[in-house]
Here is the input.
Amino acid sequence: MKKMLITFVLSLVFITSFQSTADTSSEPTQDSEELRLHDMLMLMLTPHIEKDLRSYYNPKIFKDVSPFVTPWKIDLIETKRKNGFRGFIIQITFEIEPTDGGQYISLGKDRMTYEISPGPEVKLINHTHLKTYKYPPE
Here is the structure.
């Protein structure tokens, strides 16, 4: 009886340890101060990002489509201060999926690093094109 109980408990522990939990997405489900600041930053940087993406995508990758940036398709990867604590030269790295602007079909995926300094001055430091998606999709 004891052996059967131990086997049952071990089986239960083994099974529950491999069960997947509900998908815990990193997508926010409610508003917060951090989310508002993130969204403000994306809105302010979107014109710079779009300009740089357009010069890369058109005509190199797509001749008929110009990339459009939607702020909710910008993922913040890293931020760092270039000149130490409370320094105001900041590098910020994003992953971006530009769209076609009409149907919001993703055209590709890019990683971009900008340097933001007093002025304000926004300068592209690095742009890595990660992936090109088929357009129009089948």
In short: The first helix runs from residue 2 to 18. The CA atoms of residues 117 and 130 lie 26 Å apart.
